[in-house]
Structures are given as C-alpha cells and as structure tokens.
Task: inverse folding
C-alpha cells in the first residue's frame, strides 16, 4: 500500500517535471512520419506485479514503438524454434552502432545479438519460418494484443511503407546475412515483416501491460498461463540489460540498473524483475539514439523506488 | 536458517560434482607460472550478508586473481578521482577480445570500459596519480587486505615479473594510450603497478570476503563504514554485469544472471546484490578465457538459490 | 623485327610450358557456370602497338571476363561524367578483400576505388545515368566490340542470371551505397547491368585487342580516333597498377610490373604502356582470387621482354 | 641535349612558380624541430642517368628526410637478409593511415608493407640483426653517404631525441609486433635506430643523388658496381609506387605516375626508371601527410617531361 502511494507520487512528480523540460533532444528524422512527431510530449506508465497501474503525462498517446518490438519478436521466435535460434544470432553486446555492418563481416554474417538491426532481422526470419508475411504479421499482432490485453493495438501502415522506402541499410544487412546463409526467406519478405512490426503503434499503458510477463517470471498475470518459462524470461531480461540500448546499453545499466529496450520513436520499456513493468516515452533522442527524457525518467524512478537490480 | 542449510547443501554438491569433472578446459599458458597450475582443482566460497561463510573444495588454495583485481583498482580509483575517471575510460561493453587495440584506435585511445586490459591500465594510471609505484602498490594491498579482513594476502613477485617480461601487448596498449594523452604517468611505472596488482594471490575465501562491500550497498560489513556509496556499489556491479567477462559477458549474464568478474587464473568473483558475495576458482578456461567449471558452478548456484538478478 | 621474333618465341614457350602444368589452383565455384569450366586450359595473346598479334594456347576459347569488364565500364563512365566520377568513388588501394563492406562503413559508403565490387557497382550506376538497363547494356556491348574490332563478342545470359540469383553480397554493397546516396538508380537496375557486363564472354585475342587503346596513349589504333585522352589512359593504367588485382595488387606490381586487371573467370588483361596489350587466361585461381598460371605467365613474359614499367 | 635544355627550363619554371605560392599546407607539428621549419621553402633537384644534375630553389637546404629513409633501410635489409624479409612484412598497400595499428591486429602483427611505420620498424629490426644500435646506425649512414657520393650527410640528434620522446605510438606498434614475434630485438633498440634514421638530414641534391641506383637498374652510376640487382631495383620501385605515399599512394600514381616516397619533413624522392632520379622538398603538407607543393611539382615535371611510367 505504502509502496503504491510512493509509486503514484514518484510517477506524478516525474511526469510534471518532464512536461516542463526544454532540453529534449532531437526526434528521429530518417522518415517523415517520425520527424513530424511533436517533441513536447512525455508519457509514463508502471504496472506492478500486484496489478496496480500508475500512469502519468501522455501515457495514452500512441507512438511508434520501433525497436521495442524486437523484444516481442524475440520472445515469439524462442517459442517457435527454441534455443536453435542462438545458432544464427549471438547474445553478446556489440560495441557498435545499431546498424553497423562491420561486425557482420568480421563474424561471417552472424549478428552479435537479437537487438541490433541485423539480429532482429535474423529473428524475424525465424518467426517467418515457412509462412507468408501476412500470416506472420497477423500472428505478431495477435501475440502483442494478447500480452497487453488490448485488441486496439495496430500497425501504422504509413510508417511501415516509409521504412521500406528508406530501408536501404537494413536491406544491406539482410542481403549480407542471406549471402552467409544466416537468413532463409526471401530478403523482401523478411524486411516486409521487420518493417511492419517496427511500425507497431502503442501507448505507454499498452506497452507496460504487454511487458508484464517479463516481470512475472514469464507468466501472463491475468490469463494465468506461462508465456515463456521463468528461465527464458530471465534470459530475455539479461539480453535487454546487456544489449537493449544500442551503444548506450552500458550507460543505461550504469545509471538505471534495469533491463530495458529502447526504440527510435522515443519509447523505452523496462522490467523490474519480480515487481513491475514500465514504459516511458518522449520523442527527443540522445546522441546514441535513446529517448533523452525517457532515460532520465527511468533513472529517477528506479532510484526513488529502490528498484535497481544491482543493489539497495 | 533454511536458506543457510540450502546454501550449504548446494555448495557441497557443486564442490563434490566439480571434483569429478574431466572436461576442465586448458589453463592459461602465456606465462610459465600460470601454465604450471594443476587443472584438477576447484574451490568455492560464499559469504552471505548476514555473515555466514560457506566454503567447498579447494576454497583455501591461493591462486593468481589476475583480472579480478581490476574491480578493486576501479573501486580505489573512483575513490581517488571520482567521476572524472569516466573522462578517460568508458563504461560500454567492448564487443572485442580483452586485449584488442582496434577499438582504441577507432575511439582515440579511450578504452571502452575499465575491465578490458586497456581500461584497467588507464584505471591503474589514475590510482598511481602522482605517487611512486611502490607506494601505490602498498596502498592497493592494504585496501584489499582491509576489504577481506585478512592481512595474509600477498602479491606473487614471480608472476608479476613474468607478466612484465611477456607484457608486450599490454605495453602496446599503454603506449597507444600515452600517445593519446589518456594516461599521464611513465608507461613502465603504470605497467609495473598493473602487472603487480594482477599478480595478487588469494583464496576463494579471501576473495569472497573482499567482495562483501559490493553485496552490502557499499558498506564494509564488519568494519561498519562505507567503502563506497550505495549508488557507486550499484554502478560497479552494473559494469561487472555488462563487461566483467571479456567477450563472454553477455553469456554470463544470460546463463548466471549475476554481476561478476573473471580472471585468466581461473577465478571468478560474483555479487548477489543485497544477499551474498561469491568466489569460485578452477584453472581451466573456456575459449573466451573464463574459467570453464567456475562459470558452470556459478550458473548452478544461482539457479539453485534463485539468485539471478533477472527474475524469480 | 627481332623483337617480334623474341615475342613469338616467348609466347610459344610460355603456352607450351603452361599446357603441362598441374598446379593450377581451383576454379571459382560460387556459381555453377564458372565451377564447370575445365581448369586445364591456358590461353595468351599479345598485340603490339605496331599491330603484330601473337597468340598461344587456348587464345581463341571464350571465357567469362568477369571483373576485367570493370576497366571498360570505368572508361565509359569517365567519358560520360568526366572527373565528377571521383566524387563517388576513390582511387586508393583498399587493403581489403574485393567484396568487403567494412571499408564502406568506415568511409560513408564511398568505395575506395573503381575495381573493388562496390566501386564497380558505383561506376555502373554512373554509366546507367538516366537510361534503361537494356539500353545501357547495349551501349557497353557496342563499346567493347568497337574497341576489339570484333562484332562477335556477347554476354552470357546464363552466367548473368546465375550471378543475379547468388548476388546477395553485391546486393548488400549496393543497398549500403544507396543508403549513403552514392548510387542514384534503383538497386536492381544497377545490379542487373553490373551482373551482365561481368558476364561478358571473350577470348584472349578479343581481350588483348580491346585493350589496345590503353597501350596507345588512348587512341584506337585501327579506327584512328582517341577513345580517351592520353592523360586519362595513363590514369586508368595507374589505377590498374595500384588496384587491379584485389588484395594481390601489390604482389602483381612487385612480380610483373605492369598495369593489369584480373577476373575470377581466370582472365588477366595487362598493358605495356607505349608497346603492347596482353591477355592471358587460365581458370584456376590463387588464394586471393587471381589466375594462378595467368599471373605466372605475365611475370615470365614481362621479364623475358624487359617490359616492366619499373626499370630495365 | 635537347632533353637537358627542356629539363633545365622545366625545373627553373617550377622552382620560380613554387616560390610564389601561398597555399602551402601546414608543416608537421608533432615535434618542435619540424614545427619550427619555415614553410616558405621549396627545393628541387633532378639527376639524369647520363649524369646531368639540374637543381632549383632551395635545393641545397638540408631538411629532415623522415620516411624517405625507409627506402634506404629497405634496400639495406634486402641486402642483409634477402627475400626472407617478406616473411615478416608484406608488400600490399595498406588502405590505412601510416601509423594505424588496426591492420596489425587483424593480420597477426605482420605489417602490410615496408613503408607504413610498423613495416619500417620491422625492416629496421632486420637491419639491426645481431648488432648494436650504434654500429647499425653507422652502417646506415655510410650506406647513404656512399649512394649519394657525399660524406657531409648527417643525422640530426635533436630531431632523433625529440622523436624518441614523442614516439609513444611507434612504441605501441613495436611492442605489438614484439608480442607477435615479428621483431626480435629489444623494442628500445629497434626504435632507437628507427628514430635516428628518420632523422637523417639531407638536401634535395643529396637525396636525388642517393636515389640514382633505383633509376639505373640497381647500379651505382659513379662507383660502377651494383647496389642491388636490376630485378630488386624494379621491385623496390614497384613498392614505392603502390605504397610510397601512405593513404595518398593511389593519388600520386594517378597524378604523377612515378614510383616515389614521401616524408613528413616535406621531402619526396621519385624515380624515372631508366632515366632519372628526382628529389623535391617543401615543408607544408596536404591532409594525408605528403608535401603539398612537392606533389604538385612532381606532377608538373612528369607531365612536362613525358616521364609517367603509365604511358606517353
């Protein structure tokens, strides 16, 4: 109870403070749909394992979750192909920019982890399996709606199309992996699914809800069943901690101390294992591509609540 | 109480099992002193925050802690120069071998983190400050003896000399950083201190004792005072989690789920924040240079005790 | 006259000797059409600036000229866009494998020279300009037939199709350059033209004829007009010397001492400035992808005739 | 005769023109001795194979030849250890800055060619052999005085000392190669000799004289004997062409078309095989570290005289 009160106070204070900030970073500009987003927005939502939902600011404004979607496709892929997934994608931090192709060449087309672009494309290929892109997208969408208990979640087709038209670098990565036999499906099929799941549009509330299973030892708290085993949930959290923020993953672990995943749309999802799931959103990015105010909000929340996984 | 019993049982079982294993990996061979170590050894020691010490196997056999010492010099350096340390060393995982010089060239001589060799050499330069190597080594030794409550800990001069004679690659790293102004002292002074603190000889018991402050929010549990602030303790733990095992850091996070630091002598130190500190040792290494049986023992212990920081 | 006699003798001896060699290297195997070529073939043809044609061995057997075609498209592109070509492709040796993508990332998508794959693709984009692929291929074919005074030269459509089906790595390079704005046309158009001009099928005789202008200060010796200025001919020769043999360019300069260009089909074209043009062919390749016997034949011919550009 | 007249006219015009230029580039600044050199100087000297010496501008002002000395130590090393030298140094262009350590790591400590710093240090180690640094330096000095027929050539001890004090990056390279067993002698011995031969002080006249053997098929034109075989002379010329100007080697081949070697002191030595040797000097450097006016003077001289090795 006391904790809920402290949480409500913390979220309210953070939301109020962030609404006034002027140093917001620049929004992503590589596609017009993201470039147009108003930077003066900030949302936050926390869902505790005992079911309390605490929201603040623009928690109900939908935004493009972009790379945050990689956590859900990783979860799906592990369910579909199990640990054989790790034959085609590693789980080590990359020490490079999210879209670097250098590492791929040095390591024979095997991406370092599932959260750099190349790795997420390889994961998407595994999710695709022998199915058609349309079916696969349907499955991804159903999965996320189920996780969030919310049928209103959709994919923004305009964003997906825009990504496709500007996705030459991802096409380079995909072709490179295809050349090394790391992906099996036709490059344009894999990229089609990839660009579409990155174009998922969600609110902070929906995102925090969808992340609950990772805070709950893999269980869907309302449906009751296991989405993944508790061991797999821990492992997904571990990968988020070491690789979830591109070349700022060490920094996020250092400052916030929670497993998390960011996207260039300005969203960040984080997990307090055994306690809560969190989503924050603010479109302005720092120099490595993570939400500037979002990262700061996470740091402050984790500190106030004593939630760091690295100690009291 | 029940927990203590479970811990004692787990440690005993692990020690018994590891004593019988034959797939031990190869001991480090780049200096004769390490190459001569008998691979058929395994030690483990856990110290809980409530003061219980549980040891198994060769927990009282001294070994060369090598890179594990980097955690202690990092702690010292942060105490001496504070967060200005981060101007000359980063805190991102490297995505490269522990002794790579490529990253240094791409990033103007600034090492990615304090646990790759270059970073630990830069940290050693900060600890050295304006003092003489001999004084500095005395300070490091006093610090570790204090942390472990054990005056018997020493530096193996033969190992230190052997490292110096074979340390051309580290000399390359140090000269490269000196060329970029990242280290200030004479290269041979810095390397002298570095090779000597890596030559610290400790038992699992001593190492687990020395690590207690990181499990205790920065406090020395018997002396009572703060070694570092709780925030700094969390941050050191965070860096261990993301960077503590060279290019196997992601794997250790994935499998074990605890902040830890390994050394080529076969030792691994790990922290269960708020609960316990652990040291294991077995000289045979896996292909990225971490103790093979040591890593497995850590994985098993964390699983049995439910100690992963990534969830229940 | 005496020179002609010496040349005839040299060519005959080399052809006879190479016919008996058993250490021929392995033929390229990445597409079935190249993998099927009989390795026991060797052809050579020299055309002197005074019009003498000296052929030996399988000089009239057609083969896939592959990367040798890059010299002709470079010549065409310089004619079409002039020195502005150098804004999108460099002229420095690469120090990397022919199909490396690492350099592209480090240098913002600008390939180091026109003879690595990425550079040749960028050159092809310049040749394409605002035309359709079919027209452009027609123009390339007419150009080469004109240079060789031979209307029988064709493109092998089966090879071109096979390259297209296996060209994921080149597609990665092209998409990467497109992402950096280094190529303007649709990736599949550029690659279509690229794969087709690499599939040109020529004999040693035809190739040596087509290369005459580079030995003649840029002039077409029978048509009489200038194909390129003498300065441009020198410069194309210079690029062949420094970059013409992938990561074996230094070796070819060191051993042979002539500007040349090799292809994975086993052909090598070389220029003796002011004196002669040469083509050799033998399908077996050395470890960096250049014709093994072809390189040796070039070395011997240059030595016997005193043709090295680096001194008597 | 006519040629001599044309040469005298060309040299005079170039010297006059360069004296008036204001866009001279910046002098090297990493050691005070080089930083202090007056940029408003330009010297040129050509020695033809028939013995004509044509000088212009500041042809008799001594300057620090720096990396140009690498040609002489390469020649010496080949005389001492023959082609076994190529086991520890390659002969391919590097595609990297002159002092890059990245390539060394990727290729196990073997430098790409004898003209990048690492390669020249490995060559110096070979020249050192089992001798003392002082003896070896004496031998190098005697060799160059003999080549130039000039006993007045000396080493600038102040420059050598200054290089030593600032040579951390070269110390990094040397230690790295020592770690890989590519150099045998003590690192400080090798660097001592290296820094001293780079500190040779010569005039354009002396340098052009010293280079004569490379234009004369390896023969010392006045002493009459062979310094190296004609084949070795050609090969040294070939390496100068492909690797003589750091990451501007392709550009020099493209623009000038002569084998040459530059130094950060602003000197360039070039060879017209079978015809002449050339030295130019102007202290201001372009962005890759080659003499700005020196390169332009070479281009103009080669064009005027029709001396490019790549054609008429």
Result:
């Amino acid at each position: 109870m006391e904790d809920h009160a402290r949480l409500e106070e913390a979220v309210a204070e953070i939301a109020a403070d962030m609404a006034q900030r002027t140093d917001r970073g620049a929004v992503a500009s590589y596609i017009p749909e993201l470039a147009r987003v108003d930077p003066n927005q900030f949302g936050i939502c926390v869902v505790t394992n005992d079911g309390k939902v605490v929201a603040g600011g623009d928690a109900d404004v939908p935004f493009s979750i972009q790379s945050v979607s990689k956590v859900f496709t990783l979860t799906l892929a592990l369910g579909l192909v199990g640990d054989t997934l790790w034959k085609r994608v590693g789980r080590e931090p990359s020490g490079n920019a999210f879209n670097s192709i250098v590492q791929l060449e040095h390591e024979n087309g095997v991406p370092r982890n599932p959260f750099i672009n190349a790795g997420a494309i390889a994961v998407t290929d595994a999710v695709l399996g022998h199915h058609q892109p349309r079916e696969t997208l349907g499955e991804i969408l159903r999965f996320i709606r189920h996780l969030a208990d919310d049928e209103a979640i959709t994919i923004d087709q305009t964003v997906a199309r825009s990504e496709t038209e500007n996705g030459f670098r991802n096409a380079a990565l995909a072709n490179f992996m295809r050349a090394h036999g790391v992906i099996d499906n036709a490059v344009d099929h894999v990229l089609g699914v990839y660009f579409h799941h990155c174009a998922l549009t969600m609110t902070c509330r929906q995102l925090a809800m969808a992340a609950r299973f990772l805070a709950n030892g893999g269980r869907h708290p309302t449906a009751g069943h296991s989405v993944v085993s508790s061991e797999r949930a821990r492992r997904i959290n571990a990968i988020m901690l070491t690789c979830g923020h591109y070349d700022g993953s060490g920094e996020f672990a250092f400052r916030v101390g929670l497993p998390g995943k960011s996207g260039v749309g300005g969203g960040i999802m984080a997990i307090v294992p055994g306690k809560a799931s969190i989503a924050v959103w603010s479109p302005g990015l720092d120099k490595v591509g993570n939400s500037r105010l979002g990262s700061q909000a996470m740091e402050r929340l984790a500190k106030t609540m004593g939630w760091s996984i690295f100690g009291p």
Remarks:
- Chains C and B do not touch (no CB pair under 8 Å).
- The first strand of chain C starts at residue 43 and ends at 48.
- The domain at 2-66+200-304 of chain C is CATH 3.40.710.10 (Beta-lactamase).
- Chain C has two domains: 2-66+200-304, 72-197.
